[in-house]
Design brief:
With about 120 residues, the protein is mainly beta. Helices cover about 0% and strands about 50% of the residues. The chain contains no helices and 11 strands. It has strands at about 5, 10-15, 20-25, 35-40, 45-50, 60, 70-75, 80-85, 90-100, 115, 120-124. Strands 2, 4, 5, 6, 9, 10 and 11 form a 7-stranded mixed sheet that branches. Strands 1-3-8-7 form a 4-stranded antiparallel sheet, with no helix packed on it. It is globular, with a radius of gyration of 13 Å.
Length: about 120
C-alpha cells in the first residue's frame, strides 16, 4: 500500500517562497506518475505539476510555469515542489498524488493514491 505525506505548507507574504515535500512509502513503480494538485476555496482541484517516473521528465501548467519547480528524489522517494514568487491566487490546499500505470493525465480520477494535503496561504 502506498502512503503519501505532504509537508512544508504555511503562510507567506506575496513574493515569498515555500518548498513542499511529499514523502512516499510503498512501491509506486517506475512507469507511473507523481503529481501536485491544488484546490482553492470554491474551485475544483487542478493539477499544477507532474513527474513522469519512467523518464524523470516534468510538466508544469501555465499558471505556475517559471515560478514553481517540481522535482523528485527517487532514492528516497520524495516529491518536491519549490514555489517562488508566490501570489495570493496561489492560496490553496496542495495535494500530492501518485499512480502506478503509465502516463500523467490531468484528471483526478486517474490517480490511485493521495496525500492529506498541506495548506499554503499567501497574503498581500
Amino acid at each position: 500500500q502506498v502512503q503519501l505525506v505532504e509537508s512544508g505548507g504555511g503562510s507567506v507574504q506575496t513574493g515569498g517562497s515555500l518548498r513542499l515535500s511529499c514523502a512516499a512509502s510503498g512501491y509506486i513503480g517506475t512507469s507511473g506518475c507523481m503529481a501536485w494538485f491544488r484546490q482553492s476555496p470554491g474551485k475544483e482541484r487542478e493539477i499544477i505539476a507532474r513527474v513522469y517516473l519512467s523518464l524523470g521528465s516534468t510538466l508544469h501548467t501555465p499558471s505556475v510555469q517559471g515560478r514553481f519547480t517540481v522535482s523528485r528524489d527517487s532514492a528516497n522517494n520524495i516529491l518536491y515542489l519549490q514555489m517562488n514568487t508566490l501570489q495570493p491566487d496561489d492560496t490553496a490546499m496542495y495535494y500530492c498524488a501518485a499512480k502506478r500505470n503509465p502516463g500523467c493525465p490531468s484528471s483526478l480520477s486517474a490517480y490511485e493514491y493521495w496525500g492529506q494535503g498541506t495548506q499554503v496561504t499567501v497574503s498581500s
